[in-house]
Amino acid sequence: MSKKHLVFVVNPKSGVERQKVVEHAIEQYLDKEQFSYEIQHTQYAKHGTELAREAAKAGAYGVVAVGGDGSANDIAAGLLGTDTVLAIFPKGSGNGMARTMEIPLKDREAIETINRNKVVKMDVGFVNGQMFISNAGVGFDALIAKKFAKSARRGLMVYSWLVTKYLWLYNEWDWRIIVDGKEIKTRAFLINIANGRQFGYNFQIAPDADWQDGLLDVIVIKKFPKILGSSLVIRAMNGTLTKSPFVEHYRGKEITIVHPDLKLMQTDGDAHPCTNRLEFKIQAAAQKVIVP
Ligand SMILES: Nc1ncnc2c1ncn2[C@@H]1O[C@H](COP(=O)(O)OP(=O)(O)OP(=O)(O)O)[C@@H](O)[C@H]1O
């Protein structure tokens, strides 16, 4: 029987680990009876999309995103519409989607998950035509994603420091949100549209989101007294954020977010410019993925 070919696409900029460790883990734990493999490295942001597209075109069985949510997004964007399977070797900082899917963070178990090769289909989200696998957002989370991208260092400490610093400076906006035709007007700290459950580090922004239900979860954190910021963080960490009186939760297939001054958003943790009207959609069961 011919072996299934896997292309590992390593993002050398994600996470904090040395690349040799990552390559050694692949070599040591991958089932070479079942899989042939090669390791490629991205050279610039979004390069993973091109590499994944080429791998699918060349007939690869699977492409493994070696990195965090941003890397998994890049790979999935290249695979969408093909039969090639996505896998994630969680090597990012927060690893939000890997944690949502309960993909082990330890090297050996992560590679053994790939070896077991259990394939299911996942939903993917789109905002103004741009894909996201975990979540997309406007407001405070987009601001932090932008500041995090500018930071030379990665990891939870940098993230926490940025949140603490900008929390007190942040001014909430009055937003218009439309969920499957129903209009909501709200003054919000952030609005997150989620397919997966968390930003990473176990910070569960959408604890009830299901990446296989064909729906997007809309999490609105309303204006709250800043002194209560840490209680919202505790709720996010223990999976009870939507029970807070400052949080509204909706679910739908088509969501629109509008603000006349909107210019910045984040998709899967990457900040980028946007128009002042965002149209979100979900494509159910769009991508094959390896899960535990
Ligand atoms: N060679 C590269 N140089 C610069 N940027 C890259 C390169 N390869 C990938 N990227 C970009 O790096 C960004 C961040 O990657 P990723 O999300 O995997 O890591 P992370 O931010 O450390 O992890 P997490 O999202 O789990 O917190 C992605 O948007 C990706 O496009």
Name given to the CATH architecture of the largest domain: Sandwich
Low-pLDDT windows of residues: none
Q: What share of residues are in beta strands?
A: 35-45%
CATH class of the largest domain: Mainly Beta
Helix content range of the residues, please?
25-40%
| Mean pLDDT over the full residue set | 95
The main sheet comes to: 11 strands, antiparallel
In CATH, the topology of the largest domain is named: Tumour Suppressor Smad4
Radius of gyration from CA coordinates: 19 Å
Number of helices: 8
> Distance between termini?
24 Å
- Secondary-structure element string: EHEHEHEHHEEEHHEEEHEEEEE
User: How many E strands?
Assistant: 15
Shape, principal axes of CA atoms: globular
- The number of domains is 2
Q: Could you say which small molecules are bound to this protein?
A: adenosine-5'-triphosphate
- What structural class should be given to the helix and strand makeup? alpha+beta
